[in-house]
Design goal:
Blueprint: E1 10-11, H1 24-36, H2 38-50, E2 57-63, H3 83-90, E3 93-99, H4 105-114, H5 143-149, E4 153-159, E5 205-209, E6 221-222, E7 225-226, E8 232-234, E9 250-252, H6 261-281, E10 286-291, H7 313-334, E11 341-347, H8 357-362, H9 380-383, E12 384-390, E13 399-401, E14 405-406, H10 410-418, H11 434-438, E15 449-452, E16 458-462, E17 465-468, H12 484-487, E18 493-496, H13 512-528
Parallel strand pairs: 2-10, 2-11, 3-13, 3-14, 4-5, 4-10
Antiparallel strand pairs: 1-13, 3-12, 5-6, 6-7, 8-9, 11-12, 15-16, 16-17, 17-18
Helix pairs in contact: 1-2, 6-7
The structure holds calcium ion.
Length: 557
Amino acid sequence: MRNSALTERRSIKPAIRNLWVAPPHFLAKLSRVKTLFPALALALFAATALAAPAKPNIIYILCDDLGYGDVKCLNPQGKIPTPHLDKLAAAGMYFTDVHSSSSVCSPTRYGIMTGRYNWRTKLQSGVLGGLSPRLIEPGRLTVAQLLKNNGYHTAAIGKWHLGMDWVKKEGKTVAELNVESADQIHNVDYAQPIKNGPNAVGFDYYYGISASLDMVPYTFIENDRVTKLPTVDKDFPMFLGRAQGKCRLGPAAPDFEVEDVLPTLTTKAIGYVKSRAAEAKAGKPFFLYLPLASPHTPIAPTKEWQGKSGLNHYADFVMQTDAAIGQLLAELDKQALAENTLVIVTSDNGCSPQADFPALLAKGHNPSYEFRGHKADIFDGGHRVPFLVRWPARVKAGTLSQQLLCLTDFMATAAEIIGAKTPDNAAEDSVSFLPALLGTAKASLREALVHHSINGSFAIRQGNWKLALCRESGGWSDPRPGTPKATALPPVQLFDLDKDIGEQINVQDKHPEVVARLTKLLEKYVADGRSTPGTPQQNAVPVQLVKTAKAAPAKAK
Ligand SMILES: [Ca+2]
């Protein structure tokens, strides 16, 4: 089931119908009306048929490092209760084969925003820091800009991690394509406005933090300014209650505390929905991109949630994240906006080992479900992510889809939903999954899908086959890149996911024709600068398909 060529959605609760399907009592009533007033009834039908569906509001919630197996409805053996996510999935559709374009933060976020594979950019491995300049190229169309151009009010609330241009002190520099070093953290004039942040790529409003919550600066940003100057240096435990392991020491607003971030972002998101409700009802829809900073490190559940899971503080933090999403959805109900609001909940990569896998496994919980590895890896544990969708107006409740999809697919989907076209030099790796949502897809929507790990290793997936152009994990799990164990392995890995979902048996020597075919397809995608039909485009830099013996950066998040 889980790895078949993925076809149409299946109803798991056939009794539940969405409003797309008129209930029988309504049809009966309509039929009586038709008998009495045929002209009126015909006019009603005509108006319904001709009226374009109203553009939906869109809320895209991106959790940070939330594992596929951390969502209870996706992992029945899971030990973390996620009642709000489960309820959301039951009221809509959940997907079992969706992948982030990368196994780490910044690159995946680039793919969501642009509909283009992250490895076409300057960033060929690792992640940005909190002071890094913008990664999204000037002039590149983003999904936010596309929606804004089509009448949406747009907001980003949360962790950006796609770079923004801080004003640097005279003669000082910051790292462009990796996390800043300890001697760079004071090289920025934090009192100056920031250029080329979220507002420059299509967001009317921004509130959040520059990068991961374990990266400087520890202060909130509203549009192009920090809300409070980071005048002191602080660090925070990576895992609540653990003496060893601290976030990077650096500039912080005096009252900034990491456990306040999730509640603050939630309050801001609720306030945003509330503030947009009247206009949304009057015909100006909104797009809220909500990249939460949790349950990524620092693992910092508030006092109220500490100990709730009975597992560890990571699990507590997942529960708190679930509850925060529940609060936002409750506001949507309260404003009577749920019906025509498309809500997507997903994660930017797999669960991090910082969650403490051994402790969770000992209690019967696997954040990676049945998949191999975790965040940073080329294995599915690195990039197969939860993907839940609710949109009562168009998506039938209680359904699941096994379509193979990538988080880059959001942009083409949004475009199709609003009836917009993307130019040839945008959304090059984006395939609309609207047919999956509507239940009209009869075959796989994607020809194939490319995966990318933290050290820049590649894999390509087509149907049941997954070919990785590396000997090892490409990330943090065993065998790690560059180790003697890894160098003794065959240069590529081929897995038949229909028979081997755990990616345990490398069958590259048994199917050389598959290895050759998929390698050729990947080479074509690289050479064409795109993986969808259209005019070939340029990658920002030459792309090296095989990364030899390059160890994954140990500290990048
Ligand atoms: Ca992440």
